[in-house]
Amino acid sequence: MPLGRWTPLRHPEIDQVAIDDVLHALADPTRRRIVRMLIADGDRPCGTFGLEVSPSTLSHHFRSLRKAGIIRQFDSGRQRINTLRVAELDTRFPGLVDTILDSAPD
Amino acid sequence: MPLGRWTPLRHPEIDQVAIDDVLHALADPTRRRIVRMLIADGDRPCGTFGLEVSPSTLSHHFRSLRKAGIIRQFDSGRQRINTLRVAELDTRFPGLVDTILDSAPD
Q1: Are A50 and A2 in contact (CB under 8 A)?
Q2: Which among A20, A28, A99 has CB closest to B99?
Q3: How far are the Cα atoms of A89, B31, B59, B74 from residue A86, in angstroms, in the given order?
Q4: Which of A 76-105 lie inside 8 A of B, CB atoms?
Q5: 3-class SS at A74?
Q6: Domain range holding B84?
Q7: Is residue A56 a part of any domain in this protein?
Q8: How confident is the model at residue A6 (pLDDT cuts 50, 70, 90)?
Q9: At what angle do helices A96-103 and A29-41 cross, to 10 degrees?
Q10: Distances from the Cα of B41 to the Cαs of A31, A95, A104, B35, B58, in angstroms?
Q11: Does residue A94 surpass a pLDDT of 90?
Q12: In this complex, is the C-beta atom of B14 within 8 Å of any C-beta atom belonging to chain A?
């Protein structure tokens, strides 16, 4: 049975997303780069970002973004796909993600 | 000689302020409350904020805000006065502090 091979990934409901988690998640240049790549190119699997960090560090960054409500992750075959929740976030914190990305030089 | 009784307080130049430090500093409800009180009431000494946190925790919060370039602190007699650098910050990160404060429910 392929279902149940993975622990289901937890995603906060948008009204449970905490501003402190969003700010901490975006206070890192690698995580901002992930968000910028998702904005530019749309959904993509974890292994395709070409970032020069170790797999465990990369997993940590994706987990931070997921727990902060900034991305959703779902498993498709052997790939874990990442998708942005910026439209949802924007209903809760209008303009926040854009303003942070505009402020960061990276 | 009253001068030299304190170690001079370090303040980053505005062009050295790091976005990551600003985001971490504002990812805390007590620190946001300090900023909101300074916006509402202007400069005030550390001991007058009426926050229910220990003196050491309060010192930590003020230090985080100072190192992130959000406040300046200077000693006047026996008091340490806090003053906002939001106008300066706004030249470097337009709208960032306001957008974060508007996003936070506290």
Answers
A1: no
A2: A99
A3: 5, 26, 35, 40
A4: 92-96, 99-100, 102-105
A5: strand
A6: 15-103
A7: yes
A8: low
A9: 120
A10: 36, 27, 30, 10, 18
A11: yes
A12: no
What residues in A contact B95, CB-CB < 8 Å? 95, 99
CATH number at residue B56: 1.10.10.10
- Chain A residue with the nearest C-alpha to that of B99: A96
Distances B94 to A94, A100, B57, B89, B90 between C-alpha atoms, Å: 15, 10, 30, 7, 4
What is the side-by-side strand order in the sheet with A79-84?
A44-45, A79-84, A71-76
B24 touches chain A (CB under 8 A): yes
Beta strand ranges found along chain B (DSSP E): 44-45, 71-76, 79-84
Closest in A23, A92, A103 to B27, CB measured: A23
A41: tokens are 């190119």
Is A30's Cβ below 8 Å from some Cβ in B? no
Spatial distance between the Cα atoms of B65 and B32, rounded to a whole number of angstroms: 9
Q: Is A2 among the domain residues?
A: no
**Count of domains forming chain A:** 1
Q: What is the pLDDT along chain B (106 residues), one digit of tens a residue?
A: 445 455 678 999 999 999 999 999 999 999 999 999 999 999 999 999 999 999 999 999 999 999 999 999 999 999 999 999 999 999 999 999 999 999 998 8
Tell me what ipTM this predicted complex has.
Answer: 0.89
**Minimum distance, in Å, between the CA of residue A95 and any CA atom of chain B:** 7
